[in-house]
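Hi, here's the filled form for the chain we discussed.

Project: internal
Contact: R.S.
Residues: 124
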Amino acid sequence: MIRIEIIANHSVEENILEALAAEKAGKYYTKYPNVYGVGSTGPRMGDAIWPEENFALVIWCEEEEARSIAQAVASVKERFPDEGIKLFSLNKAASPGPEEQPAAPEQPPTPPPQPAGPEAENLP
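And the returned structure, exactly as it came back:
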């Protein structure tokens, strides 16, 4: 599985969603409607000084769909190069299967229990 994050200016939100639909990719996503921060195209703080805002989409998908999403976002970036459109991806590390689990460290053998109390004194 791959995690895709798309962070972009609100001005291109519809363009990105349309491009994803055209690629038949990114159908299932989580949207953060108002995202603030500072990127390479400047601050987006949603205030009187820096009034612009971004949005973010988070998509979990397989590799083939990730390529289609990247193509869709690239097409929008090509049309709007100054709008601060970013795509980040992260591969989810697969958990090792049972046959791949690291071996448990060897433990020294446990000595047999020794009797305690008055009867221990009568042992040969």
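Let me know if anything looks off before we file it.
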